[in-house]
Fold these 4 entries.
Entry 1:
Amino acid sequence: MNYFLTETEQMIKDTAREVAQKYIKPVAAEYDEKNEFAWDVQEKIAEAGLCGVYIPETYGGICPEGQMGIMNLVVAVEELSKVCGGISLGLAATALGTIPLILFGNEEQKQKYLPAIAAGEKLAAFALTEACAGSNAGGIQTTARKEGDYYILNGTKQWITNGNVAEMYTVIAMTDKTRGARGATAFLVDKGTPGFSFGKKENKMGIRASSTYELVFEDCKIPASAILGKEGHGFLSAMKTFDMSRPGVAAQALGIAAGALEDAVDYARTREQFGKPVISNQGLRFLLADMAMKVETARAMVYATARSIDSGDRNCSKESAIAKCYASDVAMQVTTDAVQVFGGYGYMKEYPMEKRMRDAKITQIYEGTNQIQREVIGQCLIKEAAAKK
């Protein structure tokens, strides 16, 4: 289907596809097996100019000032994820950690970090989740106590994507627990800051080529100038960030599903049973047709949401939640069906399909579980209905 990509978007798409086929495909299984971050591939992604696709030109990116570049990010992440949903997170998770800076950072903060991120010299991460604060993001326990011109951070963040490999972390901590969610503040914390260390490296089911670590803050002293936005606006910053970043997760899910569909069709055309290709069986063609419909409808929603955000729509909670929820459900359904198309081969690690199925699952969980997405959608529907009366 023709989505009328701009010349720039098409260039990004073609570049990302080339990087994925040339540099990611040969090593995806190896990094998945080793549970290691693919630094050599990340360097190729940076060399290809993909790290700054969502960052304003002023700071070394390619986006006109005032635009978010979410569509650019979406087409890049989709193409990379067609080959490996884990390696693609080097870019996607950095975008999650960087979007709060683009939205709420001051000029000094932007000049300090964005050029290096756009050039691929530094990665970023977003640290909100804790052991007892997942879906209940307002229940975080990490604290930031003010002492003069500094804040002292104490607490632990869990399951942080790009943990250990990022240089800049957007960290949400409580500056006033008595105010609940309104007592949370966002901080920019540099790797190597005294009192900031890394705990457990997670041994995950999928996206194993992505680095996932526990972050530990023990009397971590950071300057007050590291506050992102205003004190007490951390929870609002996080929610606004998710509105912009969830299409990126949706694009990862979309890419995983689209890659699975492409491989399933190719396999069905060449695999023979009873003297003929299995695609000659109507039942299997119907299965592939259902997979194709799901992928294309997911793409339509993801692209439409990204374009809406880039056009200046900052009231997109419902649409972002729909895109993330639907695309990730599609990724799980399509990869499961693709394993079925491959039969016994699909269950074996020699083929990439079982990896896609493992990678797909996390897209239904992080950046808000799909149950939370449905709650967001439902609450938005209630507000919209009330506004009409």
Entry 2:
Amino acid sequence: MKAPKLGLAVALAATLVLSACGSGDGDSDTESSGSGDNADIKICMYTHGDGGGFWSVAKAGAEKAAEDLGVELDYQESNNDPEAQAQFIEAGVTAGCQAIAVSAPNPDAIAGALEQATAAGIPFVTMNSGSAVFKDLGAFTHVGQDEFIAGQEAGNKFKELGATKVLCPIQEANNIGLQERCDGAKDTFGNVENLQLSSGLADIGKSQAEIEAKLKADSSIDAVFSLNADIATGAAVPASDAAGRDIINGTVDLSGDAVQAIIDGNLAFAIDQQQYAQGYLSVVLLYLNQTNGHELGGGQPMYTGPGFVTSDNAELVQQLAEDGTR
């Protein structure tokens, strides 16, 4: 499947908008104040982010868009706590948010809060997670990648690399997007076994031990599909080394460490969903809605991935990742 052509149109629209707008005075705090004619526009982004390598890049994209457009941005992360995320949304509704972007890994937990936004006439988009449920929640589009398709492409890549059995460790409970990645890999690859990590990113050492134990207990596993770059470099690759045999490692998402691991030959690939663009475009879409009445997307999601980073292009991506934009 290819991303809708409208994604290209949005990128062009963003370019035109940016060329017409002066830069604002946004900073790296969770709330950035706009300047100029757009300073009275308040856009809010409430995610399940944890401040790690992935979400710091998505946040940077949102802040850069707010700065470029001169709007006020309120960005908050719930650290994978769906109740806290719902509370952020509810507080934003009463605190003057004019448009909202939310990630939706646990849509049921935030549905009530988003109903309050709808009742208040506040438009919103989902981003990063929620591509299958954004319409049900009331969003006019979704910005991100289809997680099932990303998993399918990973399955195809593992086939190409000669793997026979893939372990798919899941680092967050109740995150439907992570389950969809594993399901997609199983759809195209077939022999995929899920492993629910008990602590995930909160305790990388424990996650490494759990992956290592599984690899040692099942010698037929010859590949690991990590669903997060920090899990890949901090847990899966060391666990593979400790298992004492050749394990093909691939991951979803990028970090400076992940790109270096590809260059060093420790990771075969990383799926790039381009989270900087997710943060940036979500703000642009909401800005255009507020200033020009647009509800872009045509009722379909706007895909930012999946793309692949391999040894063929890792060096080109490395500097951008280290600069915090990939």
Entry 3:
Amino acid sequence: MTAKRLPKCDCLNHCGDDPWLDKGKARHCDDFKAREKAAALVEIIAWKLPADAMPDDDIVVLGFFDDIEEGEPVWPCLHVDNQWLIADGFPTNPPKAWAPMPGGPRNTPWMIVRSRP
């Protein structure tokens, strides 16, 4: 099993790049563990313009609608037979941009179970 290279830690032992971690002879400090836990909650959303790319039919994506007068500008939606629908099935105008649905936090029990063969 190959250990991933983690960011360098600022503790006195520099546990982020300690080679003894791979051998099980050292442990990460609490500050390093807290930063890794916080990093698992960050996910980058890559928006796409409908003119550049379209999602596969019947796949729920995030749609950005900047012309909404009330409410939130981001909604789950899907593209079916040349028609955009909000995820509850109502027709809508095309979004200004769309993105694949985020996967959720890493290193959670759900993601661990999901990644097993």
Entry 4:
Amino acid sequence: MRRTPIVLALLGALAVTGCSSGGQTAQSAPPASSAAPQAGGARFAVITHGAPGDSFWDVVKNGAEAAGKQYGVSVTYQGDGDPAKQSQLIDQAVSGKVDGIVVSMANPDALKEAIGKAVTAKIPVVTVNSGADSSKAFGAVTHVGQSEDVAGRGAGEQLKAAGVTKLLCVIHEAGNVGLDQRCKGAEETLGGTVERLQVDVSNLADVTSKVTAKLQSDQQVNGVLSLNPAVAVAARDAIKDSGSQAKLATFDLSADVVEAIKADEVLFAVDQQQYLQGYLPITFLNLYKANLNTVGGGLPVNTGPGFVTKDNADQVAKLAEAGTR
């Protein structure tokens, strides 16, 4: 049927005004905004077990601050390896009535009470890095980090393929549940023997000394897995000092580790992409505050693992210089 100009005009008017079920005209919905929800003026506290100045945690801090700048929210970063002091920082954030808290849980039991106070105060909490198994039970919105078991198993597979049969797993923080999970994961897939060596990350000279002594006393050890980039560099020096032919791998990145990979001194680094552990929690808290969005459905949001090898070390090195890897 041929439409007259009058019919076309009426159709256009109906498209603009619409029609309600009661026969009355209704205004059309306003156009949807293309801008992301913004929790403007919100204050978020990031409280980790890694102090500023640590090469790993500085990248986490960079990610959190970049997200804060993008969303127009305030982000403060504080870190302390002492669980009691970390709990105090959480209590201070709760007293200051922040709009959200990001917290790493290397020692979950020690932080349970402080995190409980935040949840009771209706302050959303996102856990990061360590403590994924306790995150949901403690009332956190979600957890952002690496599955330490999965990452450990991946490292064990890589080391087995490289011919390692007896592995020294170097733990640098006593009581950190995530570090033990890494060693256990490697043990599951290596198919050989895994021994643990406890060291103090704050005394790297002593780390080199202890790893050197172990390699000299047990020449069957033909692989070393460090769980921290600074410890990796100390272990590299120990391998040289002891004259060992042990193969070295590590968790996490630093500029020194990337250079060691390029120089064939480190086989690979397990990369949990810690920039995301700063950036994503602020993103999630911003969306929760501005739009009541939740992420994960009770499951963690994984940021890894990835593997940095000689094949991609040059690309990663450029990103590490920018402070994002």
